[in-house]
Design brief:
Blueprint: H1 4-20, H2 26-50, H3 55-81, H4 87-114
Helix pairs in contact: 1-2, 1-4, 2-3, 3-4
Length: 115
C-alpha cells in the first residue's frame, strides 16, 4: 500500500500529465496553471505537516493540504466543464477528481484525530 506522501506525489504528477494533454487554448493554460499549483500543494503541505513545529502547526498544515485538495477538485471541474473531452480524457479527469476527493477525506480524518 502506498503511503500518503507517495500518493500525493503520484497525484501531482498525474495532474501535470493530464494538463499537458489539454487543448492549447488560453483558458486551459490559465486553469492548468491553477490545478498544477493546487495539486502540488496538497503533497507539499502534507510533507511540511510531517515536519511540524508543534501540534498547532501540524493541524494548520493538514488543513492547508485539505484546502488545496478541495481547490484541485474545483479547477478540475472547471476544466472538464469548459472542454469537450474524448472518453479516455474524461475518464482521466473523473479519476483525478475522485482521487482529490479521497485525499480530502483522508486529510479530514487525520485532522479529526488531532482534535
Amino acid at each position: 500500500m502506498q503511503n500518503l506522501e507517495e500518493r500525493t506525489l503520484a497525484f501531482a504528477i498525474r495532474v501535470r500529465k493530464f494538463v499537458r494533454g489539454l487543448p492549447k487554448i488560453t483558458a486551459n493554460y490559465e486553469d492548468g496553471k491553477q490545478v498544477i499549483r493546487s495539486s502540488g500543494s496538497v503533497g507539499a503541505n502534507y510533507i511540511e505537516a510531517n515536519e511540524k513545529l508543534g501540534p498547532k502547526d501540524l493541524g494548520y498544515r493538514m488543513k492547508i493540504a485539505r484546502k488545496e485538495a478541495k481547490e484541485t477538485v474545483y479547477w478540475l471541474k472547471v476544466i472538464s466543464g469548459s472542454n469537450e473531452f474524448e472518453k479516455d480524457k474524461l475518464k482521466e479527469n473523473d479519476y483525478l477528481i475522485d482521487e482529490a476527493e479521497q485525499l480530502q477525506r483522508i486529510l479530514s480524518a487525520i485532522i479529526n484525530k488531532l482534535q
